[in-house]
Amino acid sequence: MKIFIYGDMMKSEYRGRRDVDSLVSFIAQHYVGSVRDFLDEEDLKSRMDKSRRNIVAFIKREGEEYKNIYNLALLLRDYCDIWVPALGTQLITAKLRLYYMPPDNDTPNDFVGDMKNYTYLKQWVTDKCIPLVREVTFENVEGLTEEGLPFLIYFRDPAKKEDEKLFVDAVARELYDQRVSINPLLADGLKFLHPLSHLGKTIKVEKYRNED
């Protein structure tokens, strides 16, 4: 069952039961906690999961800016956490600001544009929340398949970080404008060794010779 948030289709589908109680429960859970609030900067730092992608919006709880952020929080809740100041805090009277905090990085990336422009804002937030190249595993492959895009998978040796970087850089350089029509993915070649063997693929063994 496809899910649409204010006209935008979510990447993941609803795969639960089709009875009324299950559907109502799913919708209620989807709306709860989509936008996370914080009291002050210290509260934000202590509660933010820095291993995830985070978007922080210093905006008031009314107006078109908040409506747009709220819609995006619903649409992208599986990919990043979106934070806004709690009601009653002085932070909501401060200057409007929107920034992105990458995983395990303390350097914010500020949004430069009009938060009332939903199309432009959605593109910026989506680019930050959903990486261009993602990791495919046995656990998430079904969800990625539901996105309906052909896979471009690099089965790599996880120990060779430089090879992974070369692939990511090549995708960003050559395929960025194709991101709506192809799904570039990384996969642990060792974990996928068995299914790859059915395709006639084997591990390339590098032999080292000691020279006297």
Automatic annotation (TrEMBL):
Biological processes per GO annotation = protein folding
Can you list the GO cellular component terms from the UniProt entry?
A: endoplasmic reticulum membrane; endoplasmic reticulum-Golgi intermediate compartment
Top-rank taxon: Eukaryota
Database matches in InterPro entries: ERP44, Thioredoxin-like_sf
Q: What GO annotations for molecular function exist for this entry?
A: protein disulfide isomerase activity
What is this protein's name?
Uncharacterized protein
